[in-house]
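FYI - complex with FE2/S2 (inorganic) cluster, inputs then prediction.
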Amino acid sequence: MSQRLSLSRAAHLIGTTRAALQKQIASGELVSSDGTVSTAELQALYPDLRIEDSGAFERITQIRDEAFGKRIRERVLPNQEILAQRLALQSEELEDVRRHLAHYHDMIEALRERIEQMSGASAAEQIAELADFLDVSLARVLGSEEPTDTIQVMDNVLRVMSAHVTVKPSGHEFFVEGSETVLQAALRAGLAPSYGCGNGNCGLCKARIIAGQTQQVQQSDYPLSASERTQGYALLCSHTAVSDLVIEMLEANAPEDIPQQEIVAKVRSVAALTPNIMLLHLQTPRSSRLRFLAGQRVALSVTGSTANFRGEYAIASCPCDDRNVLLHVCHDEEDAFASRLFAGAIRANDAVSLFGPFGDFVLQKDSPNDSVFVVCDSGFAPVKSLIEHAVASDLPGALRLIWAATRADGHYLENQCRAWADVIETFSYITLLADSPGVAGAQAAARALAEEDIKARDVYVVGPSEFVEAAHQRLVSAGLPAAQLRVEVL
Ligand code: FES
């Protein structure tokens, strides 16, 4: 008996994205009804799917590997194959029992109808007819060779390992895996929940649990009032999901919903991406993480210095990893912070003060359009953050990058683009080389306009002012609606 799964659960199970499934629905390969698909149809589309192939299973394995020390794991838990096999066997048995129950139910219904139709026959005829009917029906039930619904079995297994969360009022959905907190899972899924310390102290992450069960997994000092407890409030940073949940949670919809923060972070590493661009990796304390939207900037200054060694840079990492902040800092004699960084005066373990976030170069998240990123040189930094966030959020549209460079080494993370193109079905990119930002802007805009139906796309332009001006002018005069164009000058 085929079951129905929500698109997000089906995508989670198969190890693909919701966008990829939506594409199959749009092309007619897969039929959807009320936002759900049948396990039988999925099975027909993915006949060779095994539990081990599921992306969700891999992620769970990874979480478990991170969560347990090797020795404890070996002593306390069965290894992953045994665990998966046991759960799969149990699920198959459950599925078998469920199928037989459904057959018996059908048989009893048919028997009732048959008795109603036999009112004119003699008692002996009735008994003989009923005996024949039962023989045939039982043979059909017991000898049934209807195949086990593998997708349903996999769903049963994954339900044991991860819980599904629906957020009200936005309708966003995500999965809590292993024993991660609901907050960690929401961030990993690209959501922008309300939170502060991430550590059980501020109360900003409190949310109402409308349905389902949670369990505290991290210490918290914030006292919920008696009335909040009665209404079902819980701190998302210290609770995990025991069962599927429906929660009422505040989310940031725009940059103004994110508070300004000041955090002292530690330098994890400094590495040259090119002779002209440094990768600076900062890590915030566990109890003071940076809340920001993808595409925003932060200001940095050397902690404890009386001189004003300060600069402002686009964040090149995803808000889903709020402790590890990556920045691509360009060499600039007039930038005091960058000058110190290039002079080797800022090193691993140094303290750096971080202020922000700033800027509104953020994703248009509720837009159904494809996105085109028109980038020059280190403008790749905020776009890297946007693309990583779009992928984490499972945005429905395709992602296209047009990366122009004014130096031969300007495509300094092209290997990253290649890796995305290999694994993200909806991502593609091209690179261009030009001798000045203005020419690069005009060329990149021309390439963007050559995309089919540019008016149905959201376009993000970022780079030096000459580049942005040239690209902006061409895109607008070609009829791109202003609401679909976002620009950022670096
Ligand atoms: S984020 Fe501060 S208590 Fe949860």
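The pocket of FE2/S2 (inorganic) cluster is lined by residues 195-205, 222, 235, 237 (CB under 6 Å). The radius of gyration is 28 Å.
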